[in-house]
């Protein structure tokens, strides 16, 4: 029997909660939010699924509902929303979140380990989540699928065509970062989910198109909610609620209209230029006969005060109201300010269907066309753009007419055809109600999707694109760790001058270590030099490597070494590398080391021991000195690294991320740049061949000063702490 699936869905931006989704609030809260929430809900009801975790950003903003600040929200016994804090508490637009995604990955890893909810499968939504999923997938060795929802390439192209410059766009939308994340996702995801076959074509603009695998699975709708207009609830309480809601919907529309009993031409979308609502008003405004047949009703997002809205939405809404005025449509056109997306949209469709109306979507391009199937399921015929997904829906469902969204005469003809021919109206209405249940329900979507996951996972033991993925021993990272030994290399693990006493015995202990013990190397060396020692000395592979004086952390797996980008992001704050290099040019007794000794967070020099003067360095750095750690070691090397970077801070960071108590850590070292590892609850071993900087240390409760040197001294310390007998 196949193991039940634990699935993690990732949707970083937007507003997700268990009740009352705020769809239409802004550009980040459109159909994607609703799609993901419903996907999660219906996935959790599938018999092959053990649990669904929906990961998003934690937002604690007084301007928003306090629900977005709840770290774990239980939706049902198999579904929860888990909110990870990063980049502050305030709500931010998706474009502002790119710089913090490594912190999101970090927080998610920490959360997964802490709660022991390692997924079998990850699914990312939109480019930012694609970036995060690729990172999580690499370290956790878990496969992922991806849904794009929209693509950076086309958004950028459209904005450049409208006259904006590359520089302006880069500043605002971070297209370089977004498009490279999309490219990497195509390369690493097991497959990409699209809504239609046509949508697969849109990925051809990407270099990595050929590396991707694609599956078109139509989005579903909740057919319990979007029911035909003639459907009656058996439950009298629910029926009562329905009647009340319908009354308020009717009120919000009819207060605009002189004759509210006429059929209605309905449009419902975000106030987005791309949705082309102005063309609909032009068609209606120019045709007196159409005005006598029907009223026009447009729900364009949710607004309180147009003047305070984002520029693009403000412009669209202002244009709609000016067009209403231009054609003098007062009494014939309604443009309500708000609606309850969660509970009222289905009622709006049914209300329009009862009035023998028609639903219109004239978007210049519609990826799928969720509103087209929602209205059809309610028994409301449609007039819809032929560009994109609807051209695959209408032939299957036979529920309305396709038009060119820029051809006014075509739109007018289709509207009149449906509104004035009762048989035609009934034909489209009945087809929609029946065929949507058959082809576009969430149940059929989820069944197809779970089959694809199971098929993918059974292809190989990991189900993962083998050629791309480092195969980290994830069970080592998942396990509960009683002891983590972190050892410096030069002078501690190995000391060639002393013929390496105890090295053979220590290597045997580390090779045969139990699951309860982890091993890390911490060194001033860069990664290549650490790897060289591991190969030459035939060391057992460590779980972690902290190198370049604590400025880099890597996870190991034999051939691949994965950089922890969250640590790099953490170090970047307040670090001005170029400025430091320029200031240090004034110091005569230091000489910059070779290129391979440098990295973005480490500037390395040789120094003349006789002339070393700490105060002179501080004077040269001026006020910036307190943001920099100055580390002299072995009487000849001098490193400048961010204040946050050190072996000790790197250990703390690792322990927090992988839920290892600091009191379970034993650190071994021999020189000044190791001292920082022995702080707080961490236990220390100082080996007998210690350098002059450590000469005054004596054994205390938390630091053991060994008599023996190098590896032999480490063994002595491990016996002292009763880790080995």
UniProtKB/TrEMBL annotation:
<dbReference type="InterPro" id="IPR006379">
    <property type="entry name" value="HAD-SF_hydro_IIB"/>
</dbReference>
<dbReference type="InterPro" id="IPR028098">
    <property type="entry name" value="Glyco_trans_4-like_N"/>
</dbReference>
<dbReference type="Pfam" id="PF13439">
    <property type="entry name" value="Glyco_transf_4"/>
</dbReference>
<feature type="domain" description="Glycosyl transferase family 1">
    <location>
        <begin position="252"/>
        <end position="432"/>
    </location>
</feature>
<keyword id="KW-0808">Transferase</keyword>
<feature type="domain" description="Glycosyltransferase subfamily 4-like N-terminal">
    <location>
        <begin position="30"/>
        <end position="224"/>
    </location>
</feature>
<comment type="similarity">
    <text>Belongs to the glycosyltransferase 1 family.</text>
</comment>
<dbReference type="GO" id="GO:0016791">
    <property type="term" value="F:phosphatase activity"/>
</dbReference>
<dbReference type="GO" id="GO:0046524">
    <property type="term" value="F:sucrose-phosphate synthase activity"/>
</dbReference>
<dbReference type="Pfam" id="PF05116">
    <property type="entry name" value="S6PP"/>
</dbReference>
<dbReference type="InterPro" id="IPR006380">
    <property type="entry name" value="SPP-like_dom"/>
</dbReference>
<dbReference type="Pfam" id="PF00534">
    <property type="entry name" value="Glycos_transf_1"/>
</dbReference>
<keyword id="KW-0328">Glycosyltransferase</keyword>
<dbReference type="InterPro" id="IPR036412">
    <property type="entry name" value="HAD-like_sf"/>
</dbReference>
<dbReference type="InterPro" id="IPR001296">
    <property type="entry name" value="Glyco_trans_1"/>
</dbReference>
<feature type="domain" description="Sucrose phosphatase-like">
    <location>
        <begin position="483"/>
        <end position="722"/>
    </location>
</feature>
<dbReference type="InterPro" id="IPR023214">
    <property type="entry name" value="HAD_sf"/>
</dbReference>
<protein>
    <recommendedName>
        <fullName>sucrose-phosphate synthase</fullName>
        <ecNumber>2.4.1.14</ecNumber>
    </recommendedName>
</protein>
<dbReference type="InterPro" id="IPR044161">
    <property type="entry name" value="SPS"/>
</dbReference>
């Amino acid at each position: 029997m196949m193991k039940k699936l634990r699935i993690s869905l990732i949707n970083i931006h937007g507003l997700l909660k268990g009740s009352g989704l705020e769809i239409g609030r802004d550009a980040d809260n459109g159909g994607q939010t609703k799609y993901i929430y419903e996907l999660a809900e219906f996935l959790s009801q599938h018999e092959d699924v053990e649990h669904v975790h929906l990961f998003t950003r934690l937002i604690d903003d007084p301007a928003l509902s306090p629900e977005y600040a709840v770290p774990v929200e239980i939706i049902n016994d198999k579904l929860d929303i888990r909110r990870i804090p990063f980049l502050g508490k305030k709500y931010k637009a998706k474009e502002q979140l790119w710089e913090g995604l490594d912190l999101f990955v970090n927080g998610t890893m920490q959360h997964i380990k802490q709660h022991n909810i390692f997924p079998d499968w990850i699914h990312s939504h939109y480019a930012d989540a694609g970036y995060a999923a690729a990172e999580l997938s690499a370290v956790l060795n878990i496969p992922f699928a991806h849904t794009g929802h929209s693509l950076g390439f086309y958004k950028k192209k459209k904005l450049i065509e409208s006259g904006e410059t590359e520089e302006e766009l880069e500043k605002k939308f971070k297209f370089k970062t977004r498009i490279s994340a999309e490219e990497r996702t195509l390369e690493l995801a097991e497959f990409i989910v699209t809504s239609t076959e046509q949508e697969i074509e849109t990925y051809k603009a990407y270099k990595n198109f050929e590396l991707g695998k694609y599956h078109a699975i139509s989005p579903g709708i909740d057919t319990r909610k979007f029911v035909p207009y003639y459907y009656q609830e058996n439950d009298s309480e629910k029926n009562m609620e329905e009647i009340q809601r319908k009354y308020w919907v009717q009120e919000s529309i009819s207060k605009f209209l002189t004759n509210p009993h006429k059929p209605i031409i309905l449009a419902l979308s975000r106030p987005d230029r791309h949705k082309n609502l102005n063309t609909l008003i032009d068609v209606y405004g120019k045709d007196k006969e159409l005005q006598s047949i029907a009223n026009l009703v447009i729900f364009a997002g949710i607004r309180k005060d147009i003047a305070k809205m984002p520029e693009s939405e403000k412009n669209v809404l202002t244009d709609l109201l000016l067009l209403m005025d231009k054609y003098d449509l007062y009494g014939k056109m309604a443009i309500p300010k708000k609606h309850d997306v969660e509970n009222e949209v289905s009622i709006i469709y049914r209300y329009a269907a009862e009035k023998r109306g028609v639903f219109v979507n004239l978007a210049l391009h519609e990826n799928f066309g969720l509103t087209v199937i929602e209205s059809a399921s309610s028994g409301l015929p449609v007039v819809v753009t032929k560009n994109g997904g609807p051209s695959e829906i209408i032939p299957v469902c036979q529920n309305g007419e396709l038009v060119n969204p820029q051809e006014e005469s075509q739109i007018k003809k289709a509207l009149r055809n449906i509104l004035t021919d009762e048989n035609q109206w009934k034909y489209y209405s009945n087809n929609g109600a029946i065929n949507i249940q058959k082809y576009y329900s969430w149940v059929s979507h989820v069944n197809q999707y779970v089959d694809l996951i199971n098929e993918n996972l059974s292809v190989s033991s990991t189900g993962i694109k083998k050629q791309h993925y480092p195969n980290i021993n994830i069970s080592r990272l998942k396990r509960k760790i009683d002891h983590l030994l972190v050892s410096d290399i030069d002078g501690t693990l190995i000391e060639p001058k002393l013929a390496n006493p105890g090295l053979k015995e220590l290597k045997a202990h580390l090779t045969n270590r139990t699951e309860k013990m982890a091993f890390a190397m911490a060194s001033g060396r860069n990664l290549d030099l650490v790897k060289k020692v591991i190969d030459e000395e035939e060391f057992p592979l460590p779980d972690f490597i902290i190198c370049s004086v604590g400025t880099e952390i890597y996870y190991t797996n034999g051939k691949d070494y994965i950089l922890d980008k969250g640590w790099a992001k953490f170090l970047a704050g307040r670090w001005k590398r170029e400025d430091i290099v320029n200031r240090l040019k004034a110091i005569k007794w230091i000489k910059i080391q070779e290129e391979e000794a440098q990295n973005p967070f480490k500037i390395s020099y040789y120094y003349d021991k006789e002339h070393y003067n700490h105060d002179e360095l501080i004077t040269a750095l001026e006020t910036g000195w307190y943001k920099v750690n100055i580390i002299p070691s072995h009487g000849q090397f001098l490193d400048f690294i961010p204040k946050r970077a050190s072996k000790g801070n790197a250990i703390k960071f690792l322990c927090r991320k992988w839920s290892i108590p600091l009191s379970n850590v034993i650190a071994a070292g021999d020189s000044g740049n190791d001292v920082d590892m022995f702080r707080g609850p961490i236990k220390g071993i100082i080996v007998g061949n210690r350098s002059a900087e450590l000469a005054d240390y004596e054994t205390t409760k938390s630091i053991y000063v060994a008599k023996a040197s190098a590896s032999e001294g480490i063994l002595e310390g491990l016996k002292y702490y009763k880790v080995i007998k």
